[in-house]
């Protein structure tokens, strides 16, 4: 018969994971509803109840739950305020980034659960709402300062990339998704023009909407096209190839597309997977990234492996670029002049 010493650690570990799932829902609702914004300055549960229409006892419990996970802090007089750790959520659009991440986590959790039914979900087999959630998590929101700056930090840190954009480059994103990068770049570099391609109509519609919202639609073109065969009549100065989303059968043809569309001497930029986790702690989610990509038929590649792949496709001057915040390393290369 199983003793308490056998099952208690097991249930404790499961309880920790399930509690984190519940806390994620609580935080998501607090951000979406504007509840956290009402806690920018010190306030009371009674004031929050009047502002939100929730019952006073319920608000008391909400505040205690948020305080227990470090989102709110309280004083001896019973007032609450957003904690220093979470206060940045109220400025610059970080709340949008947080919501994108939390929403995508829910989609990914469902995909991981369904993995064991023998038919793993792919980016293309999930519904539009779920696909857009994953697409939003893969980029920054160009309508927020935080989202734009996250996209622009790497460009500004790399002289080749920055100078090309500042001088009016033609830019191709070979898998643009909802175009967080393209729209951010166009918003900042007024001489830049860009083309984004993707094979999902639903994400491209969001991309076009974003470009219109920021007033850059006249310099952005989006095509529903296959990256393994796309050819533009005019060459590009810079191509971004998000190789971490490309499964094995498509990679050689996608690189041929990059090469064919780049002008001689043009710049290719591509990300690589971040370093593997250096901890076995169960909350370190980096161990889940290789699993998700494996479900999609994508194999993780090191810097040296990607460099070898690029060299085999004819590219030269293959070096590390400034990392894409927060931890995504990049490689840059050139088509021979």
Question: How does this structure look, described?
Answer:
By secondary structure, the chain is of the alpha/beta class. The chain folds into two domains: 4-90, Arc Repressor Mutant, subunit A, CATH 1.10.10; 106-334, Vaccinia Virus protein VP39 (Rossmann fold, 3-Layer(aba) Sandwich). The chain is 45% helix and 16% strand. It has twelve helices and nine strands. The strands form two sheets. It has a seven-stranded mixed beta sheet with strand order 5-4-3-6-7-9-8, sandwiched between helices. A two-stranded antiparallel ribbon has the order 1-2. Helix 1 crosses helix 4 (94-114), helix 2 (45-52) crosses helix 3 (56-68) and helix 6 (145-157) crosses helix 8 (180-188).
Key descriptive features of the protein:
about 325 residues; alpha/beta; Arc Repressor Mutant, subunit A; Rossmann fold; 2 domains; 7-stranded mixed beta sheet; 12 helices; globular
> Could you give me the name of the CATH homologous superfamily of the largest domain?
Vaccinia Virus protein VP39
The counted number of beta strands is: 9
Query: What fold name goes in the CATH topology slot of the largest domain?
Result: Rossmann fold
Give the number of domains: 2
Number of helices: 12
Identify low-pLDDT runs: none
Helix content: 40-55%
Question: Which structural class best describes the helix and strand composition?
Answer: alpha/beta
- Measure the end-to-end span: 74 Å
Strand arrangement across the biggest beta sheet:
5-4-3-6-7-9-8
CATH architecture of the largest domain: 3-Layer(aba) Sandwich
Rg estimate, integer Å? 23 Å
Overall pLDDT score: 91
For the biggest sheet, the summary is: 7 strands, mixed
How much of the polypeptide forms β-strand, as a percent range?
Answer: 15-25%
């Amino acid at each position: 018969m199983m003793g308490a010493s056998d099952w208690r650690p097991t249930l404790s570990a499961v309880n920790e994971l399930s509690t984190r799932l519940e806390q994620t829902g609580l935080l998501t609702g607090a951000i979406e509803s504007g509840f956290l914004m009402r806690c920018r300055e010190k306030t009371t549960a009674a004031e929050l109840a009047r502002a939100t229409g929730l019952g006073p006892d319920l608000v008391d419990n909400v505040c205690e739950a948020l305080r227990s996970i470090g989102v709110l802090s309280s004083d001896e007089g019973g007032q609450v305020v957003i904690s220093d750790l979470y206060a940045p959520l109220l400025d610059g659009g970080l709340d949008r980034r947080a919501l994108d991440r939390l929403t995508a986590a829910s989609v990914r959790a469902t995909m991981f659960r369904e993995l064991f039914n023998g038919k793993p979900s792919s980016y293309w087999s999930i519904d539009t709402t779920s696909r857009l959630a994953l697409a939003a998590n893969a980029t920054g929101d160009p309508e927020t300062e935080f989202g734009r700056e996250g996209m622009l930090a790497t460009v500004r840190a790399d002289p080749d990339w920055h100078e090309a954009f500042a001088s009016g480059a033609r830019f191709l994103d070979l898998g643009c998704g909802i175009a967080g990068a393209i729209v951010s770049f166009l918003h900042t570099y007024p001489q830049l023009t860009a083309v984004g391609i993707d094979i999902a109509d639903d994400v491209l519609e969001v991309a076009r909407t974003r470009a219109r919202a920021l007033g850059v639609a006249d310099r952005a073109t989006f095509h529903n096209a296959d990256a393994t065969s796309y050819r533009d009549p005019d060459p590009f100065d810079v191509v971004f190839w998000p190789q971490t989303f490309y499964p094995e059968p498509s990679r050689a043809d996608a690189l041929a597309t990059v090469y064919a569309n780049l002008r001689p001497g043009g710049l290719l930029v591509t990300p690589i997977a971040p370093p593997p986790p250096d901890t076995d702690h169960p909350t370190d989610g980096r161990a889940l990234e290789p699993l998700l990509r494996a479900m999609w038929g994508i194999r993780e590649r090191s810097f040296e492996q990607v460099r070898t792949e690029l060299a085999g496709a004819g590219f030269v001057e293959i070096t590390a670029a400034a990392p894409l915040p927060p931890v995504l390393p990049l490689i840059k290369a050139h088509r021979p002049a």
